[in-house]
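Re: your question from the hallway

Yes, I did run it. Sequences:
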Amino acid sequence: MFPFCFEWMWDMSHMVFMGGLWYALTIIGLGMTFCIGKAFYDTFLDKGKDDHHH
Amino acid sequence: MKIDRRCFLSLGIGGAAGLALSPIPWKLADDSAIWTQMWPWTPVPADGETTYVKSACTLCPGGCGISVRKVDNRAVKIEGMEGHPVNDGGICLLGLSGLQLLYGPTRVKTPLKRAGERGEGKWVKITWEEAISEVAKKLGDLRENGESSSVACISGTDKGSVPTLFKRFLSVYGSPNFMRMPSVLDSYELALSLSFGFAAQQGFDLEKADFILSFGSGIIEGWGSPVRMIRAKSSWRESGGKTVQVEPRLSNTAAKSDKWIPINPGTEYALALGLAGVIITKSLYRNDFVKGSTSGFDKFAGLVLSAYTPDAAEKITGIKKETIEALAVDFARAAKPVAICGRGQGRAQGSLGELMAVQALNALVGNINKEGGIFAFPNPGYMAWPDYIADDIAAEGIKKERADGAGSGNFGYAKNLTNRFAETVKSGKAAVNVLFVLESNPLYSLSDTNTVKEAFKKIPFIVSFSSFMDETAINSDLILPNHVYLERYEDVYVATGLSKPVVSLSKPVVSPQFNTKHAGDVVLLIAKEMGSPVADSFPWKSYSACLEEILGGKWDKLVREGFWTDGASSTPVFKTSSGKFEFAGGFIDLAALFAPVNAEGDPKAYPLLLIPYDSMRIASGYIGDPPFAVKTVEDTVLKGKDALVEVNPATARAGGFSEGSYAILKTPKGSAKVKVHLFDGIMPGLVAMPRGLGHTAYDNYLAGKGINVNELIGTVEDPASGLDAAWGIRANLIKA
Amino acid sequence: MDSALIPRGVKRCPTWQFALWIGAAGAVLLWGVFAMLLCWFKGLNQTNMNDAYGFALWIWADLAVIALGGGAFFTGFLRYIVGKDELKNIINYAVLIGFICYSSALLILAIDIGQPLRGWFIFWHANVHSMLTEVAFCLTCYFGVLTIEYVPLILENRQIDKIPFFHRLGHNMHEIMAVFAATGAFLSFFHQGSLGGVSGVLFGRPFGYREGIFIWPWTFFLYTWSAAACGPCFTILITKITEKITGKKLVKQNVIELLAKISGWMIGTYIIAKIIDTWYWAKVTAPAAGFNLMDFYSNNPFYGIWILVLEIVICGVVPAMILISEKGRKNPAALMTAIILAVLGACVNRWVMVLQVMAVPVLTFENWVMYYPSWQEVATTILPVAYGVILISLSYRYLPIFPQEQELNPEA
Amino acid sequence: MKEEQSKEKVKKFGMVIDLDKCTGCGACMVACMAENNVPFKEDESKKLDSITWLRIYKLTNGKPFPDADICYLPRPCQHCGGKGEHGHSPCVSVCPATATDYSKETGIVSQIYTRCFGCRYCMAACPYHARYFNWWDPVWPDGMEKYLSPNVSVRMRGIVEKCSFCFHRYQLAKDKAYFEGRREIEENEYQTACTQACPAGAIAFGDLNNPKHAVYELKKSSNAFRLLERLQTNPKVYYISGREWVRRAGDNYLKDEKK
Amino acid sequence: MSTPDDKTKGVSADTGGEDAIASFKGVDEKEQGEGPGGFVILFFIIGFVASLIIGWVVFPKLLYSQKRQPVDFNHALHVETVDNGCESCHIFREDGSYAGVPKLAQCADCHQEVQGESPEEKIFVEEYVAKEKEVPWLVYSKQPDCVFFSHSVHVKLAGMDCVTCHGPIGESTSLKPYEENRLTGYSRDIWGKSMAGIKKNSWDRMKMDDCAECHEKETGRKSSVQTDKDACFVCHK
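Structure:
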């Protein structure tokens, strides 16, 4: 799963497969970080802002 | 500012974050996975120094050399000994499973004395001193009362030093009743004494023979020395030797033969005589040998030419006369043809007539006492025993009639009639007060088990020397457990079928695992305990000292190489009164000798015939099948606890059975619930069942599985010899 | 009692009634959990699987729920990528059903492996050439996506929504939901396919083996396609069942019909591809291994040719025709029939591709092996159903799952 | 050192089993069990959960009495090389956790018990049913575990195992050779337990690439065949039989197919 | 997963919507007034640091049990007196297998009687040699059962020295405590002393990855179809 794992090889299969996997994980991870981070910021740090966005 | 639940939430989140950055979750995940790789309840065998110990296997009469791999003090694997004259590196599955017997749960771990009712399984542990003095006292009392001949011993074999010690003990003590478990060897020995004129064993130079005509012998199913026979079978494939199997069932031997000739069971003798007839008619016999070295030929020829013409033989055997004629020609024209008999592994004695008829074939082709033929060599003479001293009581005792009737009356020739023992004891004809059981399991492996049970009930004191909790041991009064073969010294004489006598030495591969004693030592101790005069004939300090002494010069070679063999096969002479080979053993009434042996039972009530068969994968003698061997048994033979019987599809259809359906198998001796297995390789009208299943003793890996065929079959006394001539029994399959 | 948690403007059954309902489902759940614990602590000897049936009921259940849960990714795909706006009225439910299906699949997988504590080896020591590795990775990732899609719904619970952080979090997640949905669709296309690949790559098993492109056997594509086709039918089916049980109309008919129509066309195209695949397999692939088609469907008590007819004609062609025709979609009975058949079709397909692959003897001297599951297997397979019922009940009761519910049930 | 090792010849260990010699005695099965610490349980008659790395099948020709014929066929793991000898045997590439492997140096398909987590995909993939799952904890009664060999790991419940061509014997033989300063081992130094035990001498084992080894010539026999060759699994176990029906039982043929 | 506009609709249709917003606005104000950050962050840090300490300091102590060797052996002293270095006592058997820790008989060759002043030697002679009892040494480098490790190939063929894997144990004058992982039963020396998995010397750890690393570098074999490295069966059994 990681390049330091015994099974890892720098070949096409690994690059495509793990590439796709890490790509998806990155998007999900970044997306969630953004959502949580922004919610945190809005709630606890940026108190001036009206939470009612409409 | 106050501490509220958000603070605790925060504490938790912080804790979780810290935890994730600590080794705890990762190391625990890793370690718990490793824990599953080394679950504490999964054994890890300790490593150590690997060594090999050469020894001999005694699990069957085959006498293979073994090489046991040890790691430090543990025996871990049994392999065949390279260069051994019997097996040369090969080994059978039973031999391979030996360590399961050594370390297995069925071992009797210490001397046991019965506490409850017989067979109840309640025992008290006693010391060896107590056990020996109890036996000695009992024997001493009987001897004083003049009942010394009421002591009997049943042994698995009569070859080798330990059975000889027992026999010697009985002789010195004053009893003639040393018995060996029945086997086709009884017939061969009897036949040889009649036709060759001396107590001998039959040897077969099968490897060099080029045409083997087998009357139902399970050449690759455990006949003779199983590994040697399987090797011989392979050698014929390379040398071009031909094999023909005459048998009603497509056994493995039949399947591996060049030709399989199904025959009506029990009519093998008629085929042999029919073949003899053809050979004589066509003058294919070796005139020189028949003329020069045989006696009684004319009488024999007269009988077969009149009563066993090909047509007559066809009628009896169910084999087409063309087949018979062709077979006779092939057999007689072969350079080194050999005819052998002894059904399956040879556990049944068989009729003397059949054996003599087969032997006659060997004589007709003159393949006797030469390379690629058959031999007779004298009973083992490799041991040098000092004479024993028999006092008056002993001299008188051994003159008494044996409990099985052998050697007297109608059965003057017979040495052992253990098959008759149960009946005579049960009926009260013979009184037995003490029975020793050595390396055998008569309660399981004698035919008609129920009669044996009844007989045993009449014997007040049964002493088992068994290493294992077998059926007989459970039903005994005292168990004096022997070391198993991997813990003891013993000479192993190959009793069956080799072209030259071979003796191997069984050695202690590991030290005794439990509080057991060598049966040889126990006899010495009992004798010693009884004191003079019995003790005088047993001067040895221990069994191993005795063995070393009686083996003399062979001892060193045996210890060094593991085996000893007599190079020249001895005595190419006949010691009959005529000095020639006696056709039909000199019997006067040949028609009586060659009488058909009918299966027990009324054909109307029992339209089918039950025949037992042998398999390499099911040990059927003294040794119960170890777990590994049971594992190899096919599910068409044993399924769960159910035994499957082989039935021809046509027969099954007629009875309304399909594959796997339950049936009650009934014979005049008993009945059992079995499953039906359809097999195209069996003659219609027959039901075949393996020997070796249906144990009630031993461990859960063996007990309760299948049916003991001996419960369903009985004995048929051969009027010519007193031997058990039964080859099966009439039977019926009824829907369950 | 729990009225503070129930969304405003909708009517729910009394608490006791709900508790009773949950209790009943909970009892079934506990039975399943008991069987699961047996399997974990005593090992897989609790099942009727054996060396011929290394894959059995559980793997079928896995493949089936994942196919049926495919409604989530495909509806999401249609809603966010293709832009079928009406589907916003059913997407919540599709996501919930998908979440249940996928979590169930993971749970069953965790029971199904012989060494659950080493299960993570599939990730850490991944062999990228194995279809199962791909399944495990995509399944887990997509389950993550489904969780992300389900979480905002939970956050919409009246009480949770009151907390500003959660309110904002939910809002933010809504904002970028299309990104997640797209990632989910990408993952789904692959893992649905890999599940198809599981039997398709077995070149030692002529019943399952299929040729393909590069590393992907045809079953790879057929599985994705069939999951996209039949998954929405399962969403509709569960919606209809929910409506039946609650006695309320929850989703407008036009939404259902739109999804049914798309599903119909998907099934239609899928079944054409499946027929071609079957034909090619019967005529070319299997004969190359020495098998005639009927070798796979005779000489055994269960797997007759009926099963192929059932899968392709009755559960494939028939529902496709009904759903494609407007008349069929408008007729409630026909619609229901088609939906049930389509769901059954996916299940039968997964069944034969798992179980029959195992049953067919390959060595000439072996026989057909039949199998029936042990109660432990059945219980652990029903466990997810009970768990699904509970989760749906809770979600329906406390979360605004159906946006059209108020409108359709104004009297409440 | 790299250079030195590359000089080692590529081996392809395989077996040739003469079915006309095989008597079905079962010694090979037990030799395998005894050598490889194979466990046993009380009921082993349910063959579908009975671990027998080497299993003997009983083949019948299907004809009625008296034309019936039987043949025994011992089946170890076939150590498939896969299409074109690339080592893509049916089982190897499907393992999700890399617990089974194909060595290009020996041609042996390995199974690493401690890595396997019991998904059983390889079992599903193997058309020979050569792979076995440990449905039960291995239990040796009453001290019987004393006979276990330290050369082969005891397997735990929940994983797949199979015949390894007694690879530990290869390891030990090489150990000895290295200790004696040799690089290569002789044919007789590495033989499987079943080969060694077979009383009929029906099993030959060796390097299929090495002309000095018996199997090299044996496999070329016109009576030699392999199981399911049509699936292109490319097994390294060859069988020999003079009987047409036996050879034909090795593969599937269409009913209307000409020979 | 309803969308923001649905929500607007839902909320505005709900008469209670405004109240709800007002109520959590109120909460916000209250918290603002009391300054929320302080304790929350403090508690976060407390939790964080506490579990780090537990994880890095307490956990290893709990995970590993410490055992003393039955006799405190002085390697340095012995290496001085023997001729052939490590192989004087740690021998190969004739079949090429490695005997590992010497058996009692080997030691007893010299230590039939107490020779020196060391109390440990006295224990050894009295407790073990005299009673003919094997010393239950705890082997630091004991590999798990699944590993086949050939000393023969590493030492005889590849000519490796002992130190590379075992470290300078020959220079030690006393035996360190044997640490055993309570969960796995492994010696700690296999997984390595460092909980973070940091390796400074080649002998710090003996995990599979360490074997693999060296094998890749030294042999360059690519016999495994799965990994293009050394095949699994090279080191596993």
